[in-house]
Automatic annotation (TrEMBL):
It comes from the Bacteria. Coiled coil: none annotated. SUPFAM superfamilies: FAD/NAD(P)-binding domain. This is NAD(P)/FAD-dependent oxidoreductase. Pfam families: NAD_binding_8 (PF13450). InterPro entries: FAD/NAD-bd_sf.
Length: 482
């Protein structure tokens, strides 16, 4: 099968999906070339001194990685990275009362919701989703495969198919349970009044109990480095600074995996694509963008509720109604006055990210795709709301609007870090009309980005499914040698 230049397969793009796809192919015994346009591997798993100060390690995109702990793609590899877990998996501050804390322990979390009814509802929904091994996660991350846990999937679907607003009001009578579920569901970047947003919230909350919400000690780039090392150990060749603008830019090979979104695929494949398939790519819908900020701080964030300091992930948005209103504004193409802000304080789990006594914080809010709005004040106002005196600790800050996010990574079209709209209309069918959405009409060419099922997140399953499908098309069993 080998091409004349010696490569059996080429992988374009080294985000988590491209890296997992490359490793999967290499572990099957193929000679694989991995090319990356940027000067470093990782895509959303890159880290650096974003505020320009020595000793502060910031992540460009992903920091808290529960899906990497839960997905079959990463579990199978058992990479030698050091995971650091915060004392509290996630926190949700509220005005005038203690924050809602999500712990590894289901009962401890449930007891903090303020009523017996709400505690029972948490145990019977989120707690139930967290029990029983990885069958449910595997079923959700392989949406076109035979379910690993069909009964659990049916039960989950009864709740998860609902809009987050309806699910929260159905399950919980009090403000605390409703708010924390909304904060979880808003990770979807979808209007919380839309179907399946409840499912996003349930899954993320369940993962906090099942595998935790950890960070990689030393920065997310170390996870990418571990994948590159595993790939090279299996004989793979990895090259940075290799932009691909056309399929002719890569060596001939029997398999080509593209860790690209539909817009980039159109550019790379051009007129080779059948008209109908090209139309499907052009009609692909991108979701909201993000405005991201990174801060270097002289000390820990002064949360009004000190317990929030123990959480690596903090959801800043207040009540269910407030979060839902802000996300609805973004979905309608408007800028919310008080946006939902997802904040991460990595030093809560990994103090090595900053010099002794100092801290880092990053946060983003959702904005309409391609928005040029400067959300600096709005984001800092939300932090200050729950941590008065926060601004006094800022040593340095940097911000990235949607254009800056896309410049850093062309897959983040209009600042969309999810690889496309994550609502029901694209949940399974993304990106185009195909029984196997990872396979293109071009022989040997496959898609493996977050624009393919199961969608966004550092789980690597897009690359996992695409690579395994490519191997099956060639009659090669994954994990075997040629």
């Amino acid at each position: 099968m080998s091409a004349a230049d010696g490569f059996d397969a080429v992988v374009v793009g080294s985000g988590p999906n491209g890296l997992i796809g490359a490793v999967t192919l290499a572990e099957a015994g193929l000679r694989v070339l991995l090319v990356e346009a940027a000067e470093e591997f990782g895509g959303g798993l890159r880290s650096g001194q974003l505020t320009g100060l020595d000793g502060f390690t910031h992540d460009w995109c992903a920091t808290v990685l529960p899906l990497a702990r839960a997905s079959a793609a990463f579990r199978d590899l058992d990479l030698p990275v050091e995971w650091s877990f915060p004392a509290v998996q996630a926190a949700h501050p509220l005005d005038g009362q203690q924050a809602v804390l999500v712990h590894r322990d289901v009962a401890q979390t449930a007891d903090g919701l303020g009523s017996r009814r709400d505690a029972r509802a948490w145990r019977e929904t989120v707690g139930a989703a967290a029990r029983g091994g990885f069958g449910l996660a595997d079923s959700l991350l392989s949406p076109l495969s035979v379910p690993r846990a069909p009964l659990r999937l049916v039960r989950y679907g009864m709740f998860g198919g609902l809009p987050a607003t309806l699910l929260a009001r159905t399950l919980f009578g009090g403000e605390r349970g409703r708010a924390v579920l909304a904060g979880m569901a808003a990770h979807s970047m979808v209007d919380l009044r839309r179907p399946i947003t409840g499912g996003y919230g349930l899954l993320l909350a369940a993962l906090a109990h099942q595998v935790g919400w950890p960070v990689v000690r030393g920065g997310s780039a170390r996870l990418a480095a571990a994948l590159v090392t595993r790939f090279e150990e299996r004989g793979g060749v990895a090259e940075t600074g290799r932009p691909v603008k056309d399929l002719a830019d890569v060596p001939r090979a029997g398999i080509i995996l593209l860790d690209l979104t539909p817009r980039q695929v159109l550019g790379v494949c051009g007129e080779r694509l059948p008209a109908r398939y090209a139309r499907g790519l052009r009609s692909y819908r991108y979701g909201p963008g993000v405005f991201k900020m990174d801060w270097a701080l002289s000390g820990p964030v002064p949360w009004r509720d000190p317990a929030v300091a123990g959480a690596a992930t903090v959801h800043l948005g207040g009540t269910l109604d407030e979060i839902a209103r802000g996300e609805a504004e973004v979905a309608a193409g408007r800028i919310p006055e008080r946006p939902y802000v997802l904040a991460v304080q990595p030093c809560a789990a990994d103090p090595s990210r900053a010099p002794d006594g100092r801290h880092i914080l990053w946060a983003y809010c959702h904005v309409p795709n391609g928005s040029a709005a400067d959300m600096t004040a709005a984001i800092e106002n939300q932090v200050e709301r729950f941590a008065p005196g926060f601004r006094d600790l800022i040593i340095a800050r940097t911000s990235h609007d949607t254009a800056a996010m896309e410049r850093h990574n062309e897959n983040l079209v209009g600042g969309d870090i999810a690889g496309g709209y994550s609502g029901l209309s694209q949940f399974v069918s993304r990106p185009v009309l195909s029984a196997h959405p990872w396979r293109t009409p071009l022989p040997g060419v496959y898609l493996c980005s977050g624009s393919t099922p199961p969608g966004a997140g550092v789980h690597g399953m897009g690359g996992y499914h695409a690579a395994r499908l490519a191997l099956a098309d060639l009659g090669i069993r994954p994990g075997s040698q040629k």
